[in-house]
TrEMBL record:
It comes from Flagellimonas maritima. This is Outer membrane protein beta-barrel domain-containing protein. Pfam families: OMP_b-brl_2. Keywords: Signal. InterPro entries: Beta-barrel_OMP_2. Residues 1-20 form the signal peptide. Residues 31-202 form the Outer membrane protein beta-barrel domain.
Amino acid sequence: MKNVLLLFGLLLAISPNSMAQFNKDPILNLQSEDLKLLNWGYYLGINQYDFQFEFKNDIGQDILVDKSIGFNVGLIGEMRINEYLDVRFEPGLLYTGRNLGFPGFTSEADAIREVKSTYIRFPLLLKVSAKRFGNWKPYVTGGLYTSINLGSKEDSLDDNSSGEFRMKQNVYGYELGFGIDIYTEYFKFSPSIRGVFALTNELVPDNDPNSPWTGNINAMRTRGIFINFTFE
């Protein structure tokens, strides 16, 4: 998580024209950009996903999650409400990977489960912006999302006893974030950082209720962090 935040700061610092937008008296770019009723764009980004586990019994042995960096890509449709409020629909595709380490096994083949997920996401967000300062404008955003996990294996008849870790296909949750709109000469560039929190219990338990992998798990929910770079 710390590495992702550091990368966000570095990319913001070296982004094209980023520092020039903070001059005392800059030439104002795209002065009518925020007056449109509808606005369109796209975003690229990276993510790091984790899991939050709830256990039935506290046995003092946690499931370890080895996180990796994934990527995001998507489109943006924005409707202006007023000078400070916009509603945004940001459908996108997200790929991420996690390795789970289960305690109590002597064999790596039993202890490690690789979880690769490809999500199609449909977030509906409210963007709350501050007053524009020269060529930049900070904002916060938040809202709800639904997503489809194409790698869920929910309908598979095999479970962890056969090496298959299953998750639910449909996931619901919310996300919160903040960012900065930077008005360049030709387009609006917006780096942002988001926190993503699933409300759905995503675990499909093993067929055996006393499974050493899922028997003690009451719920498993995604937690993640995004860094998105938006072009409008």
